[in-house]
Design a protein that fits this description.
Blueprint: E1 5-12, E2 22-29, E3 34-38, H1 45-52, E4 60-65, E5 68-69, E6 84-87, H2 99-104, H3 113-118, H4 123-135, H5 151-164, E7 169-172, H6 181-198, E8 201-206, H7 209-215, E9 218-223, E10 226-232, H8 238-244
């Protein structure tokens, strides 16, 4: 079976940066896994997701997503982009548009260029969008403008838009960082449960190990662009997790 993600010896540094954002980074993810990337700000988590999404340029090494090699010099072909969905920390919604219109934006990559430009959504597109909203618990908000919603509701709209895309890989960058603990738990449950029902693989970044343990099957700790540990959640050690946020801790294990 083709791995969902396969990266080998990836390195990348932002222009003017003193340290590499990713350094000799290698990680493989199997279909259906739910992987949490842990680590402090600057560990390389967002950079890695950006690479997998095809938006990062100038990296070295080898990377493939859903069996297709990524090119560090150009984006993936248009036909491949809908297979990877991205949930942004800041929602990235059209604030003055309705919930339904925002969710339907997730269908654009599955439509012909002419239909996408004209905004002509087929009945199937509408059905998929409405199912995604139902799965996210926002079906009754379809006609509400996004700028009238709470933060938690907006994040659910962003998740529904991603699900409407019908991705095989879902990438979520700190999807609950702006939410209180109760709402954060609800939102991660929505993401991982909806992905599991669809047979999609999920990789999400988090600063909250307690939530990662509950909603991931695997935890990957990152420190200074490298992997510090990679374990099934039941085997992850509290000391290793704590060491991620105290870089001078003597028991931090780098396993590259």
């Amino acid at each position: 079976m083709t791995r969902t993600v396969e990266t080998d010896d990836i390195s990348f540094a932002y222009r003017g940066g003193e340290l590499s954002a990713l350094e000799s980074f290698s990680l493989a993810v199997e279909p259906g896994e739910q992987v949490a990337l842990l680590g402090p700000s600057g560990a390389g988590k967002t950079t890695f997701l950006t690479l997998l999404d095809g938006r990062l340029r100038g990296w070295t090494g080898r990377a493939a997503v859903l069996g297709k090699a990524l090119d560090p010099a150009r984006p993936p072909p248009r036909t491949a982009r809908p297979d990877v969905g991205f949930i942004f920390q800041e929602f990235a919604l059209v604030e003055r548009s309705t919930v339904l219109r925002n969710v339907l934006n997730g269908r654009l990559g599955r439509m012909t260029s002419v239909a996408a430009i004209l905004g002509r959504h087929a009945p199937r597109d509408l059905a998929i969008a409405r199912q995604a909203m139902a799965d996210c618990g926002i079906a009754e908000l379809a006609d509400r403008r996004v700028d009238t919603l709470s933060g938690g509701q907006r994040q659910r709209v962003a998740i529904a838009r991603c699900l409407a895309q019908e991705p095989r890989l879902i990438l979520a960058d700190e999807p609950v960082s702006n939410l209180d603990p109760a709402r954060a738990s609800d939102v991660l449950n929505v993401i991982t449960a909806a992905a599991a029902r669809r047979g999609a693989t999920t990789i999400f970044t988090s600063h909250q190990p307690d939530l990662a343990v509950r909603f991931a099957s695997r935890m990957v700790g990152m420190s200074e662009g490298r992997i510090a540990f990679d374990q099934p959640v039941e085997n992850a050690l509290g000391d290793d997790i704590a060491a991620l946020y105290h870089a001078d801790a003597p028991h931090l294990r780098v396993v590259q």
